[in-house]
Amino acid sequence: MRGDEKYLNSEYPSVREKMESLIVPVEYREAVLEKVVRTMLILNGWSEDYPEFDETVQRLVTEAKRFDKNWETSQQ
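Request: output the structure for the sequence above.
Response:
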């Protein structure tokens, strides 16, 4: 059992509700990933004005999806 399953299957409704509220719906998963990558780059000193900013974001999103072996199967 994964750690999060322990909480999702909790006997306490408030714990289950809290964990369920943290789950990103599949249709928004890539958009959320892109926003996280953009935020991380900006926090590390990048500017959205850099010419290569959008290209770098897309490259990092692609790499993150490739890293997650379950990306395609968990999209269903």
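The chain has a mean pLDDT of 82.
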